[in-house]
Design brief:
By secondary structure, the chain is an alpha/beta fold. It has helices spanning 10-21, 33-42, 78-88, 107-114, 159-165, 175-195, 207-223, 227-230, 233-243, 250-256, 267-276, 282-297; strands spanning 3-6, 26-29, 45-49, 52-56, 59-61, 69-74, 92-100, 119-125, 128-133, 136-141, 145-148, 169-171. It contains 12 helices and 12 strands. The protein has an 8-stranded mixed β-sheet with strand order 5-2-1-6-7-8-11-12, sandwiched between helices. Strands 4-3-10-9 form a 4-stranded mixed β-sheet, with helices on one face. The structure holds NADP nicotinamide-adenine-dinucleotide phosphate. NADP nicotinamide-adenine-dinucleotide phosphate is lined by residues 6-12, 29-31, 35, 63, 75-78, 80, 84, 101-103, 125, 127-129, 131, 262.
Length: 303
Protein backbone atom coordinates (compact mmCIF):
# COMPACT_ATOMS: atom_id res chain seq x y z
CA UNK A 1 0.00 0.00 0.00
CA UNK A 2 1.47 3.33 -1.06
CA UNK A 3 1.64 6.18 1.43
CA UNK A 4 0.66 9.37 -0.40
CA UNK A 5 1.76 12.43 1.52
CA UNK A 6 0.34 15.84 0.68
CA UNK A 7 2.59 18.63 1.89
CA UNK A 8 6.38 18.35 1.87
CA UNK A 9 6.76 20.84 4.73
CA UNK A 10 7.97 20.19 8.27
CA UNK A 11 5.74 17.33 9.44
CA UNK A 12 5.23 15.92 5.93
CA UNK A 13 8.99 15.55 5.56
CA UNK A 14 9.35 14.02 9.02
CA UNK A 15 6.77 11.34 8.20
CA UNK A 16 7.77 10.74 4.57
CA UNK A 17 11.46 10.22 5.30
CA UNK A 18 10.90 7.84 8.21
CA UNK A 19 8.34 5.75 6.29
CA UNK A 20 10.65 5.58 3.27
CA UNK A 21 13.65 4.66 5.43
CA UNK A 22 11.67 1.65 6.65
CA UNK A 23 11.29 0.51 3.04
CA UNK A 24 7.63 1.54 2.70
CA UNK A 25 6.48 3.02 -0.63
CA UNK A 26 5.96 6.80 -0.35
CA UNK A 27 4.83 9.36 -2.93
CA UNK A 28 4.75 13.09 -2.24
CA UNK A 29 2.01 15.27 -3.65
CA UNK A 30 3.23 18.79 -4.36
CA UNK A 31 1.15 21.87 -4.95
CA UNK A 32 1.83 22.72 -8.60
CA UNK A 33 4.34 22.27 -11.46
CA UNK A 34 6.60 25.03 -10.12
CA UNK A 35 6.92 23.29 -6.72
CA UNK A 36 7.47 19.94 -8.42
CA UNK A 37 10.24 21.45 -10.55
CA UNK A 38 11.83 23.05 -7.46
CA UNK A 39 11.69 19.67 -5.69
CA UNK A 40 13.40 17.93 -8.60
CA UNK A 41 16.10 20.61 -8.66
CA UNK A 42 16.65 20.11 -4.91
CA UNK A 43 17.10 16.38 -5.60
CA UNK A 44 14.86 15.20 -2.75
CA UNK A 45 13.92 15.94 0.83
CA UNK A 46 16.66 16.80 3.30
CA UNK A 47 16.12 15.88 6.93
CA UNK A 48 18.56 16.89 9.67
CA UNK A 49 18.42 15.17 13.03
CA UNK A 50 20.99 15.12 15.82
CA UNK A 51 23.52 16.90 13.58
CA UNK A 52 23.18 14.35 10.79
CA UNK A 53 21.65 15.34 7.43
CA UNK A 54 20.34 12.88 4.86
CA UNK A 55 18.77 13.45 1.47
CA UNK A 56 15.85 11.24 0.44
CA UNK A 57 14.99 11.22 -3.26
CA UNK A 58 11.32 10.26 -2.93
CA UNK A 59 8.88 10.01 -5.81
CA UNK A 60 6.73 13.12 -6.21
CA UNK A 61 3.69 14.03 -8.29
CA UNK A 62 0.96 16.63 -8.76
CA UNK A 63 -2.55 16.50 -7.24
CA UNK A 64 -3.95 15.76 -10.71
CA UNK A 65 -1.98 12.47 -11.04
CA UNK A 66 -3.51 9.28 -12.42
CA UNK A 67 -2.97 6.78 -9.62
CA UNK A 68 -5.87 6.21 -7.19
CA UNK A 69 -5.05 7.06 -3.58
CA UNK A 70 -5.86 4.53 -0.87
CA UNK A 71 -3.88 6.03 2.01
CA UNK A 72 -3.20 9.72 2.46
CA UNK A 73 -1.32 11.68 5.07
CA UNK A 74 -2.59 15.27 4.93
CA UNK A 75 0.37 17.31 6.16
CA UNK A 76 -0.58 20.89 5.25
CA UNK A 77 -1.69 23.75 7.51
CA UNK A 78 -5.29 23.74 8.74
CA UNK A 79 -6.31 26.58 6.38
CA UNK A 80 -5.02 24.63 3.35
CA UNK A 81 -6.72 21.33 4.23
CA UNK A 82 -10.15 21.83 2.68
CA UNK A 83 -8.98 23.28 -0.66
CA UNK A 84 -6.27 20.61 -0.94
CA UNK A 85 -8.78 17.79 -0.40
CA UNK A 86 -11.31 19.33 -2.76
CA UNK A 87 -8.67 19.21 -5.49
CA UNK A 88 -7.58 15.67 -4.62
CA UNK A 89 -11.05 14.15 -4.03
CA UNK A 90 -11.41 12.65 -7.55
CA UNK A 91 -8.33 10.49 -6.87
CA UNK A 92 -9.42 9.17 -3.49
CA UNK A 93 -10.56 5.54 -3.74
CA UNK A 94 -13.88 4.53 -2.16
CA UNK A 95 -11.91 2.73 0.59
CA UNK A 96 -9.37 5.55 1.10
CA UNK A 97 -8.13 6.23 4.62
CA UNK A 98 -6.65 9.55 5.69
CA UNK A 99 -4.56 10.84 8.56
CA UNK A 100 -5.21 14.52 9.26
CA UNK A 101 -2.23 16.14 10.99
CA UNK A 102 -3.70 19.62 11.35
CA UNK A 103 -3.51 21.54 14.61
CA UNK A 104 -6.63 22.93 16.32
CA UNK A 105 -10.19 21.92 15.48
CA UNK A 106 -12.55 22.54 12.60
CA UNK A 107 -10.46 21.65 9.56
CA UNK A 108 -10.65 17.89 10.29
CA UNK A 109 -14.45 17.91 10.38
CA UNK A 110 -14.60 20.03 7.22
CA UNK A 111 -12.37 17.50 5.41
CA UNK A 112 -14.36 14.50 6.70
CA UNK A 113 -17.61 16.15 5.52
CA UNK A 114 -16.16 16.38 2.00
CA UNK A 115 -15.40 12.64 1.99
CA UNK A 116 -18.43 10.63 3.10
CA UNK A 117 -17.60 6.95 3.57
CA UNK A 118 -13.82 7.44 3.79
CA UNK A 119 -12.17 6.89 7.14
CA UNK A 120 -10.53 10.04 8.51
CA UNK A 121 -8.17 9.66 11.47
CA UNK A 122 -7.47 12.81 13.45
CA UNK A 123 -3.96 13.31 14.86
CA UNK A 124 -2.43 15.38 17.62
CA UNK A 125 1.34 15.59 17.67
CA UNK A 126 3.98 16.91 20.04
CA UNK A 127 6.81 16.20 17.59
CA UNK A 128 8.65 19.33 16.51
CA UNK A 129 10.15 20.18 13.13
CA UNK A 130 10.86 23.32 11.14
CA UNK A 131 11.89 24.23 7.61
CA UNK A 132 15.32 25.80 7.30
CA UNK A 133 14.93 26.00 3.54
CA UNK A 134 12.89 24.60 0.71
CA UNK A 135 12.58 20.80 1.11
CA UNK A 136 15.08 21.08 3.96
CA UNK A 137 13.72 20.23 7.40
CA UNK A 138 15.18 20.02 10.90
CA UNK A 139 13.77 17.47 13.34
CA UNK A 140 13.79 19.73 16.41
CA UNK A 141 11.96 17.82 19.12
CA UNK A 142 11.09 14.24 19.90
CA UNK A 143 7.45 13.72 20.77
CA UNK A 144 4.39 11.57 20.37
CA UNK A 145 1.53 11.48 17.91
CA UNK A 146 -1.90 10.43 19.12
CA UNK A 147 -4.25 9.09 16.48
CA UNK A 148 -7.95 8.38 16.70
CA UNK A 149 -11.22 8.21 14.83
CA UNK A 150 -14.17 10.01 16.45
CA UNK A 151 -16.53 7.59 14.68
CA UNK A 152 -14.80 4.26 15.37
CA UNK A 153 -12.72 3.25 18.41
CA UNK A 154 -10.95 0.38 16.55
CA UNK A 155 -7.37 1.13 15.38
CA UNK A 156 -6.52 0.30 11.75
CA UNK A 157 -4.17 -2.65 11.15
CA UNK A 158 -1.73 -0.45 9.22
CA UNK A 159 -0.56 1.31 12.38
CA UNK A 160 2.05 -1.44 12.12
CA UNK A 161 3.65 0.67 9.34
CA UNK A 162 4.24 3.47 11.85
CA UNK A 163 5.78 0.99 14.26
CA UNK A 164 8.09 -0.25 11.51
CA UNK A 165 9.06 3.32 10.62
CA UNK A 166 9.83 4.23 14.26
CA UNK A 167 7.18 6.95 14.38
CA UNK A 168 6.18 7.23 18.05
CA UNK A 169 2.40 6.96 18.18
CA UNK A 170 -0.48 5.91 20.38
CA UNK A 171 -4.02 5.02 19.47
CA UNK A 172 -6.42 7.36 21.24
CA UNK A 173 -10.08 6.29 21.32
CA UNK A 174 -10.94 9.82 22.55
CA UNK A 175 -8.92 11.91 20.12
CA UNK A 176 -11.36 14.84 20.34
CA UNK A 177 -10.57 15.18 24.03
CA UNK A 178 -6.85 15.44 23.19
CA UNK A 179 -7.46 17.97 20.43
CA UNK A 180 -9.70 20.10 22.67
CA UNK A 181 -7.13 20.02 25.46
CA UNK A 182 -4.33 21.08 23.12
CA UNK A 183 -6.54 23.81 21.69
CA UNK A 184 -7.28 25.14 25.20
CA UNK A 185 -3.56 25.15 26.11
CA UNK A 186 -2.86 27.01 22.90
CA UNK A 187 -5.59 29.61 23.58
CA UNK A 188 -4.26 30.29 27.07
CA UNK A 189 -0.65 30.79 25.94
CA UNK A 190 -0.06 31.58 22.28
CA UNK A 191 -2.19 34.72 21.71
CA UNK A 192 -0.71 36.42 24.80
CA UNK A 193 2.84 35.76 23.57
CA UNK A 194 1.95 37.54 20.32
CA UNK A 195 0.24 40.48 22.05
CA UNK A 196 3.13 40.97 24.48
CA UNK A 197 5.82 39.98 21.97
CA UNK A 198 7.37 37.65 24.52
CA UNK A 199 8.60 34.13 25.24
CA UNK A 200 6.30 31.61 26.92
CA UNK A 201 8.09 32.04 30.27
CA UNK A 202 7.30 35.78 30.36
CA UNK A 203 3.63 34.86 30.84
CA UNK A 204 4.50 34.17 34.49
CA UNK A 205 4.25 37.98 34.83
CA UNK A 206 0.66 37.83 33.53
CA UNK A 207 -0.51 35.16 35.95
CA UNK A 208 -3.97 36.60 36.69
CA UNK A 209 -4.78 37.12 32.97
CA UNK A 210 -3.75 33.52 32.27
CA UNK A 211 -5.85 32.26 35.21
CA UNK A 212 -8.95 34.17 34.00
CA UNK A 213 -8.56 32.73 30.50
CA UNK A 214 -8.22 29.22 31.94
CA UNK A 215 -11.45 29.70 33.94
CA UNK A 216 -13.32 30.70 30.77
CA UNK A 217 -11.77 27.90 28.73
CA UNK A 218 -12.86 25.37 31.36
CA UNK A 219 -16.43 26.68 31.15
CA UNK A 220 -16.28 26.29 27.39
CA UNK A 221 -14.86 22.75 27.51
CA UNK A 222 -17.54 21.63 29.95
CA UNK A 223 -20.31 23.27 27.89
CA UNK A 224 -19.01 21.34 24.86
CA UNK A 225 -19.13 18.04 26.77
CA UNK A 226 -15.33 17.91 27.19
CA UNK A 227 -15.15 17.45 30.97
CA UNK A 228 -11.95 15.38 30.88
CA UNK A 229 -10.21 18.04 28.78
CA UNK A 230 -11.23 20.68 31.35
CA UNK A 231 -9.73 18.82 34.31
CA UNK A 232 -6.64 20.55 35.77
CA UNK A 233 -6.29 22.90 32.78
CA UNK A 234 -4.82 25.84 34.68
CA UNK A 235 -2.19 23.65 36.36
CA UNK A 236 -1.14 22.19 33.02
CA UNK A 237 -0.95 25.64 31.42
CA UNK A 238 1.38 26.72 34.24
CA UNK A 239 3.48 23.56 33.78
CA UNK A 240 3.77 24.19 30.02
CA UNK A 241 4.72 27.84 30.56
CA UNK A 242 7.51 26.75 32.93
CA UNK A 243 8.70 23.80 30.82
CA UNK A 244 8.85 25.91 27.63
CA UNK A 245 9.88 29.19 29.30
CA UNK A 246 12.70 29.92 26.85
CA UNK A 247 10.63 29.17 23.71
CA UNK A 248 8.64 31.41 21.44
CA UNK A 249 5.20 29.89 20.77
CA UNK A 250 4.37 28.64 17.26
CA UNK A 251 1.93 31.53 16.79
CA UNK A 252 4.58 34.03 17.86
CA UNK A 253 7.01 32.50 15.36
CA UNK A 254 4.43 32.66 12.56
CA UNK A 255 3.67 36.34 13.26
CA UNK A 256 7.35 37.25 13.65
CA UNK A 257 8.05 35.72 10.23
CA UNK A 258 5.06 37.40 8.60
CA UNK A 259 3.28 34.06 8.05
CA UNK A 260 -0.41 33.34 8.28
CA UNK A 261 -1.47 31.89 11.64
CA UNK A 262 -3.94 29.06 12.29
CA UNK A 263 -6.02 31.33 14.59
CA UNK A 264 -9.30 30.34 12.94
CA UNK A 265 -8.80 26.74 14.11
CA UNK A 266 -7.59 27.70 17.60
CA UNK A 267 -8.87 30.83 19.39
CA UNK A 268 -11.32 31.48 16.54
CA UNK A 269 -12.76 27.97 16.91
CA UNK A 270 -13.07 28.43 20.71
CA UNK A 271 -14.92 31.76 20.31
CA UNK A 272 -17.29 30.32 17.68
CA UNK A 273 -18.01 27.31 19.91
CA UNK A 274 -18.79 29.68 22.80
CA UNK A 275 -21.25 31.60 20.62
CA UNK A 276 -22.91 28.33 19.55
CA UNK A 277 -23.29 27.38 23.22
CA UNK A 278 -24.59 30.92 23.98
CA UNK A 279 -21.82 31.27 26.57
CA UNK A 280 -20.55 34.71 27.55
CA UNK A 281 -16.75 34.50 27.74
CA UNK A 282 -15.72 38.18 27.73
CA UNK A 283 -11.97 37.72 28.20
CA UNK A 284 -11.67 35.12 25.46
CA UNK A 285 -13.70 37.28 23.05
CA UNK A 286 -11.59 40.32 23.92
CA UNK A 287 -8.42 38.29 23.40
CA UNK A 288 -9.61 37.37 19.90
CA UNK A 289 -10.32 41.02 19.06
CA UNK A 290 -6.92 42.13 20.36
CA UNK A 291 -5.17 39.36 18.43
CA UNK A 292 -7.01 40.20 15.22
CA UNK A 293 -6.06 43.88 15.61
CA UNK A 294 -2.42 42.85 16.06
CA UNK A 295 -2.58 40.67 12.93
CA UNK A 296 -4.26 43.46 10.97
CA UNK A 297 -1.56 45.91 12.02
CA UNK A 298 1.01 43.53 10.49
CA UNK A 299 -0.99 42.97 7.32
CA UNK A 300 -1.67 39.31 8.16
CA UNK A 301 -4.97 37.46 7.55
CA UNK A 302 -7.42 37.76 10.46
CA UNK A 303 -8.46 34.10 10.23
P1 LIG B 1 4.52 23.55 6.83
O1 LIG B 1 5.95 23.31 7.21
O2 LIG B 1 4.09 24.93 6.47
O3 LIG B 1 4.16 22.55 5.65
C1 LIG B 1 2.93 22.56 5.01
C2 LIG B 1 3.14 22.06 3.60
O4 LIG B 1 1.86 21.88 2.98
C3 LIG B 1 3.92 23.03 2.72
O5 LIG B 1 5.01 22.35 2.17
C4 LIG B 1 2.91 23.43 1.64
O6 LIG B 1 3.45 23.60 0.36
C5 LIG B 1 2.03 22.22 1.61
N1 LIG B 1 0.73 22.44 0.97
C6 LIG B 1 -0.25 23.31 1.27
N2 LIG B 1 -1.28 23.22 0.43
C7 LIG B 1 -0.93 22.25 -0.47
C8 LIG B 1 -1.58 21.68 -1.60
N3 LIG B 1 -2.78 22.09 -1.99
N4 LIG B 1 -0.93 20.71 -2.29
C9 LIG B 1 0.30 20.28 -1.92
N5 LIG B 1 0.96 20.78 -0.84
C10 LIG B 1 0.35 21.76 -0.12
O7 LIG B 1 3.53 23.08 8.01
P2 LIG B 1 3.85 22.07 9.23
O8 LIG B 1 4.65 22.79 10.23
O9 LIG B 1 4.31 20.78 8.70
O10 LIG B 1 2.39 21.94 9.84
C11 LIG B 1 1.38 21.08 9.32
C12 LIG B 1 0.31 20.97 10.42
O11 LIG B 1 0.88 20.27 11.53
C13 LIG B 1 -0.15 22.33 10.96
O12 LIG B 1 -1.52 22.31 11.26
C14 LIG B 1 0.67 22.48 12.22
O13 LIG B 1 0.06 23.32 13.20
C15 LIG B 1 0.74 21.04 12.72
N6 LIG B 1 1.89 20.77 13.59
C16 LIG B 1 3.15 21.13 13.22
C17 LIG B 1 4.23 20.82 14.06
C18 LIG B 1 5.65 21.20 13.70
O14 LIG B 1 6.55 21.02 14.53
N7 LIG B 1 5.93 21.70 12.53
C19 LIG B 1 3.99 20.17 15.28
C20 LIG B 1 2.69 19.81 15.62
C21 LIG B 1 1.64 20.12 14.76
P3 LIG B 1 4.42 24.82 -0.08
O15 LIG B 1 5.76 24.42 0.42
O16 LIG B 1 4.29 24.79 -1.54
O17 LIG B 1 3.87 26.03 0.60
Amino acid sequence: MIWHILGAGSLGTLWATRLARAGLPVRLILRDPARLAAYRTAGGLRLSEAGNTQCHALEAELPAGEMPIHRLLLACKAYDAEPAITELAPRLAADAELILLQNGLGSQQAVADLLPGRRCLFASSTEGAFRQGDFDVVFAGQGMTWLGDPKDPQPPAWLADLQLAGIPHQWSPDILMRLWRKLALNCAINPLTVLHDCRNGDLRNLASEVATLCDELQLLLRACGQNAAAEGLHEEVQRVITATAANYSSMHQDVARGRRTEIRYLLGYACSAARRQELQLPHLQELQQRLQSALQARGLPLD
